[in-house]
Amino acid sequence: MLSNSDVGAVLAALRAAGVRAEVAGDKVRLSPAGKIPAELLPVLRQHKQEIIAALRGPAEWQEARELTARLQADRERLRQLLREAGRRRGWPRVQLTEWLTLLPGPASWERYLSCPAHGADEYRRLLAALGG
């Protein structure tokens, strides 16, 4: 059995080699496979369960991952709804605040809706400005 620090060292060696490790069900996915150091292969096979446990982290992380996935899906659905509202209204110019104006046209709307910095407040302003 590997200690936590040994598992950490194995994962650090993979990162140093440019290999990304992630859990998929009961498997460890390593990519790109061609960069996995040969000396780590037996360790990875023999201690797969410890490595999976380390990659998964504490149990509460599973809930956090599920919430993050739901948040991403909800955010994308909201963007779809706002895009559709913009399209139906002919991609209008929208004054969101005294200092922020969404310019007319699909390209401006797409840039605005795709901005990762925009969150609930920005989308709420846009929805209100559209009369929603």
User: What would the principal axes of the Cα set say about the shape?
Assistant: elongated
Helix content: 55-70%
Q: Can you write the helix and strand succession as a string?
A: HEEHHHEEHH
Q: What is the tally of beta strands?
A: 4
Strand order of the largest sheet: 1-2
> Mean pLDDT, as a whole number?
89
The total of helices stands at 6
- Separation, N- and C-terminal Cα atoms: 58 Å
Radius of gyration: 23 Å
Determine the strand fraction and express it as a percent band. Answer: 5-15%
Query: In terms of structural class, how would the helical and strand content be classed?
Result: alpha+beta
Largest sheet: 2 strands, antiparallel
Question: Can you offer a commentary on this structure?
Answer:
With 132 residues, this protein is an alpha+beta fold. The protein folds into two domains: 4-57, Arc Repressor Mutant, subunit A; 73-129. The chain contains six helices and four strands. The protein has helices at residues 4-16, 41-46, 48-56, 59-88, 106-114, 120-129; strands spanning 20-24, 27-31, 94-97, 100-102. Strands 1-2 form a two-stranded antiparallel ribbon. The protein has a two-stranded antiparallel ribbon with strand order 3-4. A hairpin with a 2-residue loop joins strand 1 and strand 2. Helix 4 packs antiparallel against helix 5. The longest helix is centred in the middle third of the chain and has 30 residues, at 59-88. The N and C termini lie far apart (58 Å).
